[in-house]
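User: Could you go from structure to sequence for me? I need the amino acid at each position, not a summary. Structure tokens:
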């Protein structure tokens, strides 16, 4: 694997046997042999575009040299062909604002095509900006370089102008192919025999063999043979037939035009030829390497949990001998971080979260100013003592406490990894803390003041979600539940529909990502005992009422209960919206100061917005320049602070 860094692109580029779409020029569709790809951006470049000269002298603009510019998704209009495009590369004169695309810089389009194959008259270049339908292929083209026949009032895309109505196609030498529309002839399965894409309105077809191919694959067919050691040690040949096969690289079935090796009986999808060799996936902490086949045995994919056939290619971990993942599962957009790691040194291992001072003292990264002392004596605090990382009460767990101040961490939270990978994000996460961190969790969509795992770009997760695995054992169901993104289901806990679930592979049971992290036990001042999450609906009978809000509880949703007192509560009444805020701590938001306050039997303040006295465990005391008020829920907070921005 040759990793190349070129000035035409900010990320490393890797050779690929062909390019069917190039981000560096307007040429779209078809195949061009040899090129580069960027796994990070999912970009492909023709070899000549990726290796383009940074400055040229062009006869179309002799006054000044033209410099290669790299701008993403900004519309430009080529002065030579008149085409508008949104590509990243073009040549530009900063003095004259002269722009020419990379294709025209190398091969300027002629002003006149005297003898086109697609039409009986000569064609003249037209540089206007209006959209048009090509008179040959019938496809709508937006701003493409077109040629016009002024006698027939027809317009043609430049590449279609040199195509004939009947051709001899090298990948179907038996019979000529005729240019047809879908209305003229029935065909096999409506897909191109070469690339497998669905045929558009016009295409080439052999009625004898039921061989159909789209216009792009006629203009620029894939190479008949390739030698690409990354895919296979021998030369591979294209088999342009409709044939059922199992791809040796990914193990999945194919139905047409594989590349094959006659020496080894090796077959591979066109799309699997340049699979990355060494990658990271968000389902595993270590690097994975591509294997041509696994050792004999029974293997299960770490993503889809289905069997992996050991005789086909897959990705495996050299550190964890039992971990493998299907090739197609490994390179999913929501699993792979889009980086090819071949030739990139592996980063040092995980940074320790603390330094050991002695057997009972540590210096934690989140509290470097003081030492933390281990306390393993069981206590029950009733929620008044809370961990700085997860913002959950210290009940009977071991914890570290600061020898000089009130800083406290659960022992398990003190040992949290500083860096990790998470199934919800394709980028590595870092554990951070401090007053200025994002309080919103992108997974459970709740707010908290604890530590966060973040990728520093798009996602931030609180500790309870950041430490969640993609497979969980939940007391509500006897089978393992796996994270599933995209399968729409109804949550067994809250009875709401969602498309991100922890679900069972064998049945229709699933719980959404928020309900999966509900605490199994908790406390509320309304009851002196620990209360438990109850999810066994089959044993319920009669009606249930919430002792906090005194409203009826839907028997189809989970609830909290105290077996000693025979009372039940809504989940939302027990937890509230501010249970992950640190009691007594004051934070600033614009011109306001906000303090979280714990309620009690003698302190249930009236909410300024909804005017109710809700016995939620925590309320917010919002201090304004002239007054302070209480807010009982996030809805009330958003309504008052974010919509109206002030209290009148």
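Assistant: Here is the amino acid at each position, in order:
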């Amino acid at each position: 694997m040759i990793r190349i860094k070129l000035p035409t692109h900010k990320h490393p580029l890797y050779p690929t046997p062909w390019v069917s779409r190039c981000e560096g020029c307007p040429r779209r569709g078809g195949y061009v042999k040899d090129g580069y790809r960027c796994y990070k951006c999912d970009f492909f470049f023709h070899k000549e575009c990726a290796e383009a000269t940074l400055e040229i002298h062009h006869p179309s603009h002799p006054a000044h040299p033209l410099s290669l510019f790299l701008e993403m998704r900004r519309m430009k209009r080529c002065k030579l062909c008149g085409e508008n495009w949104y590509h990243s590369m073009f040549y530009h004169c900063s003095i004259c604002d002269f722009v020419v695309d990379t294709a025209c810089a190398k091969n300027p389009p002629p002003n006149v095509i005297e003898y086109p194959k697609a039409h009986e008259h000569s064609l003249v270049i037209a540089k206007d900006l209006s959209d048009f339908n090509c008179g040959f292929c019938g496809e709508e083209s937006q701003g493409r370089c077109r040629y016009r026949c002024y006698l027939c009032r027809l317009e043609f895309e430049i590449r279609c102008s040199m195509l004939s109505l009947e051709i001899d196609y090298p990948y179907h030498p038996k019979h000529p192919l005729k240019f047809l529309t879908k209305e003229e002839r029935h065909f096999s399965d409506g897909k191109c025999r070469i690339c497998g894409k669905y045929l558009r309105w016009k295409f080439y077809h052999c009625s004898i063999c039921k061989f159909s191919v789209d216009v792009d694959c006629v203009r620029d067919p894939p190479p008949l043979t390739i030698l690409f050691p990354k895919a296979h040690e021998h030369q591979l040949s294209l088999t342009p037939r409709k044939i059922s096969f199992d791809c040796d690289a990914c193990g999945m079935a194919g139905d047409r035009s594989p590349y094959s090796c006659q020496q080894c009986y090796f077959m591979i999808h066109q799309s699997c030829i340049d699979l990355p060799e060494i990658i990271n996936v968000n389902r595993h902490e270590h690097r994975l390497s591509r294997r041509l086949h696994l050792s004999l045995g029974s293997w299960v994919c770490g993503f889809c949990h289905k069997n992996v056939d050991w005789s086909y290619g897959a990705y495996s971990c050299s550190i964890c001998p039992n971990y493998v993942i299907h090739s197609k599962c490994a390179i999913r957009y929501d699993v792979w971080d889009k980086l090819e790691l071949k030739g990139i040194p592996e980063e040092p291992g995980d940074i320790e979260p603390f330094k050991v001072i002695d057997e009972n003292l540590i210096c934690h990264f989140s509290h470097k100013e003081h030492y933390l002392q281990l306390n393993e004596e069981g206590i029950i605090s009733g929620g008044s003592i809370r961990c700085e990382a997860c913002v959950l009460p210290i009940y009977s767990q071991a914890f570290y406490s600061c020898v000089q101040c009130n800083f406290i961490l659960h022992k398990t939270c003190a040992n949290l990894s500083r860096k990790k990978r998470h199934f919800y994000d394709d980028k590595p996460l870092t554990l951070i803390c401090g007053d200025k961190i994002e309080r919103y969790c992108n997974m459970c969509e709740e707010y908290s003041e604890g530590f966060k795992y973040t990728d520093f770009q798009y996602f931030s997760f609180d500790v309870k979600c950041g430490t969640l695995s993609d497979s969980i054992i939940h007391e509500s169901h006897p089978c393992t539940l796996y994270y599933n993104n995209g399968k729409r289901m109804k949550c067994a806990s809250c009875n709401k529909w969602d498309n991100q679930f922890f679900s069972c592979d064998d049945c229709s049971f699933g719980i959404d990502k928020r309900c999966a992290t509900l605490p199994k036990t908790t406390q509320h001042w309304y009851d002196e005992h620990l209360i438990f999450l109850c999810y066994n609906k089959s044993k319920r009978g009669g009606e249930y009422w919430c002792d906090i809000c005194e409203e009826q509880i839907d028997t189809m949703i989970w609830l909290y209960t105290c077996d000693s007192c025979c009372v039940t509560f809504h989940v939302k009444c027990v937890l509230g919206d501010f249970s992950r805020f640190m009691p007594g701590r004051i934070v600033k938001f614009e011109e306001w100061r906000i303090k979280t306050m714990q309620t009690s039997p003698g302190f249930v303040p009236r909410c300024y917005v909804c005017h109710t006295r809700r016995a939620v465990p925590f309320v917010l005391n919002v201090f304004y320049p002239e007054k302070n008020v209480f807010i009982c829920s996030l809805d009330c907070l958003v309504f008052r602070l974010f919509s109206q921005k002030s209290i009148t």
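One structural detail worth keeping in mind: Residues 586-644 form one domain.
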